[in-house]
Amino acid sequence: MKFVFVTLFPEQIQAAAGHSMLKRGLDAGLIEMECVNPRDFSMDRHHSVDDAPFGGGVGMVLKPEPVVEAIRAAKAKAPGAPVIAMSPGGVTFRQELAETWAREETGLIFVCGHYEGFDERIYHWVDRKVSIGDFVLTGGELPALMIMDAVSRFVPGVLGKLASAEEDSFSSGLLEYPQYTRPVVFEGMEVPEVLRNGNHKLIALWRRKQALKATLLLRPDMLPAEPDKQDAKLLKEIREELEAD
Ligand SMILES: C[S@@+](CC[C@H](N)C(=O)[O-])C[C@H]1O[C@@H](n2cnc3c(N)ncnc32)[C@H](O)[C@@H]1O
Predict the structure, then answer these.
(1) For 2-152, which CATH class?
(2) Residues 6+ apart with CB under 8 A from 48
(3) Start and end residues for every CATH 1.10.1270.20 domain found in the chain
(4) What is the pLDDT of residues 86-96, one digit of tens each?
(5) Does the C-beta of 137 come closer than 6 Å to ligand 1?
């Protein structure tokens, strides 16, 4: 999977990708990363990439010529990859999209905005606008890096054998169950006995119940509309326990 960033701040991308799992994936050649800087395509002697908005208003707008030329260069580096503009007004990025892109695409091109955003005509060269949430950041680099991180977790080998992205919150359809490690007792709080007794059937049932409980309490919108028999029974138990508390 190749990630190409159209960005005015390649150092920010390189710094963030130089650690932990992303670095491991890059070093192992499981994922690739390149940056294309619109400033390198600016025609004027000041290498300017932004200009004042027509119609007035505060801030500066990214000019179409250098950004579109940078998108063209990015497309040459990752032929066939969708061009994704980072935009607070885009569709909200979700785990499902991370899985789909990791499965179906061999590359992704992220176009990172800055200042007041893009000249509208740039979107003609964009396949999709994506947001990471209902808030506004100073630039598209962090959103694009977040998406690269989320997609990379589904690229085989990036997480190694020790972890599985499929069992995480959202991928399983529920929030994750609580996890514990040693020590058994910490500041008076004990790891649930069921996790220590080696009965894998009971452990799986406990985890399912805890995942349902966390989802019911924090993200009830994610609960299955028609739970199967076991989930329905567990949910009934959870509701009764909560009422009794
Ligand atoms: C300051 S923002 C521009 C905001 C724009 N004036 C608006 O109101 O939608 C600069 C750039 O940061 C990126 N950005 C900011 N917030 C974002 C978000 N929630 N999701 C994705 N990209 C975002 C976009 O690339 C955007 O062009």
Answers:
(1) alpha beta
(2) 42, 63
(3) 185-244
(4) 999 999 999 99
(5) yes
